[in-house]
Amino acid sequence: MPASVVDCTIQSIPARLHTCGRTPETFLRGADWLYMRHPPQGKLWYGSQIKGHDHLNDQSVHSRLLNRPHGSPRDVFYNDEDGSYYWGWGIAAFSVRQIRDLCLPNPNTPIKKVKGPPPGLDVYTFSVCHRPTPCLYPHCEIHAYKNGNRLTRNIRNSMKSLIRKRFARLGDRNRFVLAWHLLLAFFRAITDRLYIRLSPG
Q1: Which of 18, 32, 92, 192 is most buried, judged by most C-beta within 10 A?
Q2: What is the rounded distance in angstroms from the CA atom of residue 73 to the CA atom of residue 135?
Q3: Sequence-separated (6 or more) residues with CB below 8 Å from residue 11
Q4: What distance lies between CA 180 and its chain's CA centroid?
Q5: Crossing angle for the helix pair 175-198 and 157-173, nearest 10 degrees?
Q6: What DSSP line would sit under the chain, residue for residue?
C-alpha cells in the first residue's frame, strides 16, 4: 500500500499523528500492542463481548509502536472522518502476537459429502495490517481469515459469538497492561510539558 499523499486537513487531530508521506509498515512486531476503542461498557469486565465489536473481518485499531514517542492509547479516540473525539469511551488492548496466535475451529462446520477422507473443521485465523490514513498514521486493521482465505462474506452467527468471546477474554486479560500504558503516557506528557517550560527561549 503506497504512502498517503493527501495531507490531513483536520486541525483537531494532533500533527504528530498525521501520516505526512510516511510509508506503511509491511510487518508489525509481535511485541507491539493494539488499541481498540469501544462504547462505554457500564461494567468493569467485558465478559462475553466487547461492546461495539462488530467489524470482525476489518476491525480498526491503533498500533502502540507506530505512535511513538509521544503517543497515548487514548489517541484511538480521534475520528479521522470529522475530527471528533470519543470522550468517555473505553479501550481494549491486544498484542499483535495474541492476534496472530488466535486459531478458532468452527465446531458447527457444515459437513459436505466428498470422495475420500471427510474435510476437517473450518478454522478462523487473524492478522494485523498497517493501514494509515492521512490523519492517523498508527491506524491498523485486524483481518480475519477462513481456512487461510481472507473473509469476504458474513461470518456465521455461531462463529461471531466465539470470536467476540475470545477477543473479550483477551481484553480482560490485558487490562493491567493497558493501565500501565496509560500511566506511562500520562507521565510522558507531564515530562514533555515541563521540558517545554524549562527550555530556554
Answers
A1: 92
A2: 16
A3: 83
A4: 18
A5: 50
A6: -PPP-SPP--TTS-GGG--TTPPPPS---TT-EEEEEE---SSSS-TT--TT---SSEEEEEESGGGTTT--GGGGGB-TTT--B-TT-EEEEEEHHHHHH-EEE-TTPPP---SSSPP---EEEEEEEE---SS-TTEEEEEEEETTEE--SPPPHHHHHHHHHHHHHHHHHTHHHHHHHHHHHHHHHHHHHHHHHHS--
How is residue 20 written as a grid cell?
Answer: 505526512
Cell of 150: 481472507
Is residue 2 very low, low, confident or very high in pLDDT (cuts 50, 70, 90)? very low
- β-pair partners for 144: 126
Task: Supply 138's cell numbers.
Answer: 498508527
Q: What is the mean pLDDT of the chain?
A: 90
Determine the pLDDT at residue 96.
Answer: 98
Q: Confidence class of residue 191 from pLDDT cuts 50, 70 and 90?
A: confident
Spatial separation of the C-alpha atoms in residues 58 and 15, rounded to whole Å: 26
